[in-house]
Design brief:
It contains ten helices and eleven strands. By secondary structure, it is an alpha+beta fold. The protein has three domains: 120 residues, no CATH class; 72 residues; 114 residues, no CATH class. The chain has a four-stranded mixed beta sheet. It has a four-stranded mixed beta sheet with strand order 5-6-10-11. The protein has a three-stranded antiparallel beta sheet with strand order 1-3-2. Helix 1 crosses helix 2, helix 5 packs across helix 7 and helix 7 crosses helix 8.
Length: 330
């Protein structure tokens, strides 16, 4: 087979098991439930029996699930992978972990992160450096959705509700969002990337509301406008009235905001907001803002979030205090 420089070659795994000798294998929550279901044992028992732990590594401060390899090789490798049909998503992707990677880039990654001599003898390291390898697209899309959600959820070190995370992964892993992620990853669509980030940072607010054990209510927005010290979020007349009444009556108990740099657009920052009320509901929203506008808005990060009806039907508007971390958009 003759390939041009822009074409991609599939990586043909030799099933040698050398990559199965890594000390830690990254798992996602769905991996753990799927394998536990396969062995017909509860998740806690599966984790204890097979050395699945929450841990941080040098590349991330967020705890993630890992399969610890205590012997010479993964306990599921016995004359080949004994769980091949249900193997972890990371194993399915390896060694091509990003779209468009060359063999040289993958070799450098393996050598940097190798925790065993075995993986350094993978046949991957014999391929020409300029050979571009094809990624498993469906697995890559799933990985991006799952990893994004788990990093958001587990960034709070007190969170360990794996059943809740599994429900979030199932809710997110739908055709519409997968098509958006595919367009972002493989067509380079910035617009699709921003739509995906919007969805994920709404989930960031949702996780906070779940911590409060409140019923989530999504406040949809139609854009933002700014003046010094104030961010006007354009919302429906119904939501503008709702938030106005809550703020007027002192029903908003607390507001937690998170400031997240956009990967799809480096000149943009996403702000997610969770509002805890005295009632049953917690209000959630996320919106993008241009870094230049944020820099001109507040020097110390303290702002008023003002919820203005998009149709201009109200003179009085509800507002809450929030903190927008200026270190994110300097």
């Amino acid at each position: 087979m003759v390939l041009t420089m822009t074409e991609e070659a599939p990586f043909e795994c030799a099933m040698c098991g050398r990559c199965c000798s890594q000390r830690l294998i990254l798992l996602n929550t769905e991996d753990v439930f799927r394998m536990a279901d396969h062995f017909k044992i509860p998740v806690p028992q599966f984790m204890e029996k097979h050395g699945v732990v929450f841990a941080t590594t040098g590349t991330s401060k967020t705890p993630r699930l890992y399969l610890q390899i205590s012997g010479d090789v993964c306990p599921f490798f016995k004359d080949g992978c004994s769980i091949h049909e249900i193997k972890p998503l990371m194993c399915k992707l390896f060694p091509v972990l990003k779209p468009g990677q060359t063999a040289g880039e993958i070799k450098a990654f393996i050598k940097k992160h190798a925790h065993s001599e075995g993986v350094l003898s993978c046949k991957m390291l014999t391929l020409p450096d300029n050979l571009r390898l094809a990624v498993d697209r469906e697995a890559m899309i799933t990985s991006v959705i799952y990893d994004s959600m788990e990093i958001i959820y587990y960034s709070n070190l007190e969170r360990k509700d794996m059943q809740f995370v599994r429900s979030l992964l199932k809710a997110l892993n739908r055709d519409q969002l997968r098509a958006i992620v595919s367009d972002y990853l493989f067509n380079g669509s910035k617009e699709s990337g921003l739509v995906f980030e919007q969805a994920m940072f709404e989930m960031q607010a949702l996780c906070q509301i779940a911590d409060w054990k409140k019923v989530p209510y999504l406040v949809a927005h139609e854009g933002v406008a700014m003046e010094p010290g104030k961010i006007y979020v354009l919302v429906s007349p119904e939501d503008a009235r709702r938030i106005y009444n809550l703020s007027l009556q002192g029903e908003v108990e607390s507001v937690i905001s998170n400031t997240n740099p956009s990967v799809a657009d480096p000149e943009c920052t996403f702000i997610s907001v969770a509002m805890n009320t005295k009632g049953d509901n917690g209000l959630m929203l996320a919106f993008p803002a241009a870094n230049a506008d944020l820099r001109n808005n507040s020097t110390d990060g303290h702002v008023s979030l003002c919820f203005y009806p998009a149709d201009g039907s109200m003179d009085d508007i509800g507002a809450v205090k929030a903190y927008i971390d200026p270190n994110t958009y300097k």
